[in-house]
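[Help] Beginner question about ligand-bound structures

Sorry if this is basic. My supervisor gave me a protein sequence and a SMILES string for flavin-adenine dinucleotide and asked me to "get the holo structure". I don't really know what that means in practice or what format the answer should be in. Inputs are pasted below exactly as I got them.
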Amino acid sequence: MSVAIIGGGWAGLAAAVTLAEQQVPVTLFESAAQLGGRARRVAINGLSLDNGQHILIGAYHETLRLLNQVGVDFERACFGPALRLQVEPAFRLQAASLPAPWHLGLGLLRSHGISLREKFSAMRFLLALNRMRFHVSPELSVSTLLSQQNQSINLNAFLWHPLCLAALNTPPENASAQIFINVLRDAFFAARDDSRLLLPQIDLGALFPDAATRYLNSNRGNLHCNRRIQHIDMHHGAFTLHHAQGTDTFSHVVCALPSFRVSALLGHIPAMQAITAELSTWHYQPIYTIYLQYDAEVQLPFPLLGLSQTMSQWVIDRVLTQQPGLLAVIISAQGAHEKLSHEALALHVQNELRQTLGINAIPHWTQVIAEKRATFSCTPNLQRPQNQTPVPGLFLAGDYTISDYPATLEAAIRSGVNSARLVLHNLARL
Ligand SMILES: Cc1cc2nc3c(=O)[nH]c(=O)nc-3n(C[C@H](O)[C@H](O)[C@H](O)COP(=O)(O)OP(=O)(O)OC[C@H]3O[C@@H](n4cnc5c(N)ncnc54)[C@H](O)[C@@H]3O)c2cc1C
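Answer (accepted):
No worries, everyone starts somewhere. Holo just means with the ligand present. The predicted complex, written as structure tokens, is below.
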């Protein structure tokens, strides 16, 4: 009775922590030199940065629970005031001190940058979703839903499109309306705190992977970085994992790879071929993070600003992570920016910050990190696989498995926890 986890991203770590909590010995194999996967620490110019600036929301209950379990006080680790959205050049929304969803309703009424008519139209849209119990046709795209609900160009530009890109990393015309409204439901309709935008004040490695490592080390966990699993054999219900250092055999395997790596490892198993064939049809979307290091005096009026009518979508002030003068600009999903060289893109972003925010200083250095396959395209009617597979003892975990949520930290954590619970259920029956 032994459990292997392949992949040390947030899903694999969540599975490992959940199993270790129940005193199940786990062995985790990660091909990279460090844990964290698509949400990891990177070292640049002597600074601890992230491979991509991440934003969490208060509705990430499972993520926040797990952070707590491994000893991270997220209230201290993250900056997370009540919802405040500032999208340049004109839109300002601040949640009111009322229970959900009235905090948003009154916030919308008091917002700046949209007309009274648009405020009521946005509220009518949210009320219509509530009446529909947050269910729409799985075929519907976000753009179609917004046009059916008569949302104006302004509302789309300042509110719905930025939220769609930030949450689903997919252009609204291709994005699943159902997944989008799941996020709106959880963020705006359940509890006021769920709509908070949480910005980590420590790097992503410190936020979860480091703490998960400490937890696993003190709970019989075995972690191996730099150990790529090259092949899996199945004999008499056991799984033999092949890697450069030899082989290891396990009774259960949680495969916590990114969706685009699953076919290479599991595609030879006949019972897995329907799943791997489906995954091989998926498309992916990039996320670019552009770091610009200015003089320490350069500071944003608020640590998170949205930009509209520009290539740059969000700007985060890394003064939060004790890195004064460092700004991180996020560009989600496909677009013209992909055609620019990194130097040209950094210069373009620098010019946009000058024009929109009046930052005239010249950065000391810039760094573009392009994650080309940051997330799957969250398109309508995507057939996401279950955690349980047709192969007894083999489970899938990752942000791409079936979920209410798009590819996010919360989807990854929920998936990891769920796959571990299935293993525990299975072990209890052995
Ligand atoms: C730039 C960027 C910005 C993002 N911003 C946000 C955000 O603001 N908010 C949010 O919620 N989400 C965000 N996301 C999404 C979030 O990071 C992912 O959904 C999440 O990290 C996925 O975790 P995972 O464990 O499912 O997969 P992964 O992180 O991909 O983990 C899989 C792991 O498997 C390892 N591996 C691969 N092959 C092998 C092998 N053969 N053997 C062993 N190990 C292997 C990989 O190295 C990796 O560590 C962002 C993603 C990116 C890239």
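A couple of things worth pointing out: The pocket of flavin-adenine dinucleotide is lined by residues 6-12, 29-32, 37-39, 51-52, 54-56, 228-229, 256-258, 261, 265, 287, 289, 371, 374-375, 398-399, 407-410, 412 (CB under 6 Å). Residues 3-39+61-73+203-282+380-429 form a domain with the FAD/NAD(P)-binding domain fold (CATH 3.50.50.60). Feel free to follow up in the thread.
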